[in-house]
Amino acid sequence: MLTAGEYDDVLNPELYAAYTKRSNLGQAIPDLPYLDMTRLLTVEVKDRAGQPIAFADVKLICEDGNSLTMQTQADGRAIFFPALDRLSPRLTIQAAKSGQSLGAPRAALLSSDAGGQLIGITAPSVNGNSPKKALAQKAKALDLMLVIDTTGSMSDEIRYLQSELTAIVSSLVQRHRGLDVRVGFVFYRDEGDDYVTRTIDFDRNMGRANGVLARQSAQGGGDYPEAMDQALIRAMGAGWRTDAIKSLILVADAPPHDDKFGRTWAAAEIARMKRIHITPVAASGVSDKAEYAMRAMAALTQSRYLFLTDDSGIGNNHAAPTVDCYLVTRLDALLRRVIDSQLSGQRVEPDKNEIIRSVGEYDRGKCILPADFRWQ
Fold first, then answer.
1. Per-residue pLDDT band at 130 (split at 50, 70, 90)
2. Phi, psi angles (nearest 5°) of residue 235
3. How much is the mean pLDDT over the chain?
């Protein structure tokens, strides 16, 4: 019965810029880079029928010859951060799928205006006909990795996952017939506990996966920060499939240690290059540092920030998120919607009867800005 909300910083770049300016944590923690959301570059790849092409290689070539290649997610989009990615003002964009070029290279000029920039690429026909193999295909495989803080404050969240994981996966399989699902785990605590990380690689057998999860308990900890950096590094080394939607659910209530933020962010950058969505679930004790890190990792990997709320009346009080609008639903329904969105490439909204409470002016993930709002 746990309840939660979610927030998508990629859809709200103006508010993210205001949030990071108020928090000043990007300056206080130098190893956590600032994501400039005001100048996002989104490359969207579609076929002639307007369907998104997943897992297409989008290559940006800068004026000095250096290049960066990212794969599109199920929505056909790859998102670049010009400042973080050190992009030159003029770019050449190439797209390909499975070694097949998706058209001639395209020249582009980065916009200096505040706001997101969208560049669309439409895959051409082959000799006037459709390609022999459809470029736009539905997801057929899901690799789901749960990275879970198992220190003493996380007992409610662990019991919840032990109860609900099978139902969540079953619901996804019902919505996506024939979906090949594998589940893996990284459990973590901190230095000095009886273990720091415990990794279970992907398994199709939900019975075995549930057995692993059932044997976990919440113990240890002591100080507030935990070994999140080591857990994410372990998760990056798991046997992710190249042809799967890759979803990492990070369930935690504490940040990494201050001197480990750089390692944590490096793991998030690897996740981005591997096309792994990092979806944090912020539990009761989350503070400003943990929220900042989790939101940055979610935005970097084209995902969303999830946070528990007090509406269920279960467990300790939950810190209010520093976001402007959201809907509260049951957590199980929210996790299904988020992973379903990652699989389908379309944002899945809750039914009216699922909504427990709404905060702010919400419109399909976007917050309606006041008329007097100005870019900072």
1. low
2. -65, -35
3. 92
- Burial of 255: CB neighbours in 10 Å, binned 0-12, 13-18, 19+: buried
- Phi and psi at 123, nearest 5°, equal -70, 130
What's at 129, amino acid-wise? N
Do residues 168 and 183 make contact, with C-beta atoms less than 8 angstroms apart?
A: no
pLDDT confidence bin for 363, thresholds 50/70/90: very high
pLDDT above 60 for 323: yes
Predicted local confidence at residue 361, as pLDDT: 95
Q: In whole angstroms, what is the distance from residue 153 CA to residue 158 CA?
A: 10
Residue 307 backbone zone (phi > 0: left; psi -120 to 50: alpha; other: beta): beta
List of E strands, 72-179: 77-80, 90-97, 100-101, 106-109, 117-122, 141-149
Cα 147 to Cα 223: distance, rounded to the nearest angstrom: 20
Sign of CA dihedral 249, 255, 260, 265: positive
Q: Which of 9, 54, 268, 241 is nearest to 143 (CA)?
A: 241
Cβ neighbour number for residue 209 with a 10 Å cutoff: 23
Q: Using CA atoms, how far apart are residues 365 and 348, in angstroms rounded to an integer?
A: 10
Q: Could you tell me if 264 and 256 are in contact, meaning their C-beta atoms sit under 8 angstroms apart? A: yes
Beta pairing class for 180-188 and 197-203: antiparallel
Residue 279 · residue 248 · CB < 8 Å: yes
From the CA atom positions of the chain, what is the Rg in Å?
A: 20
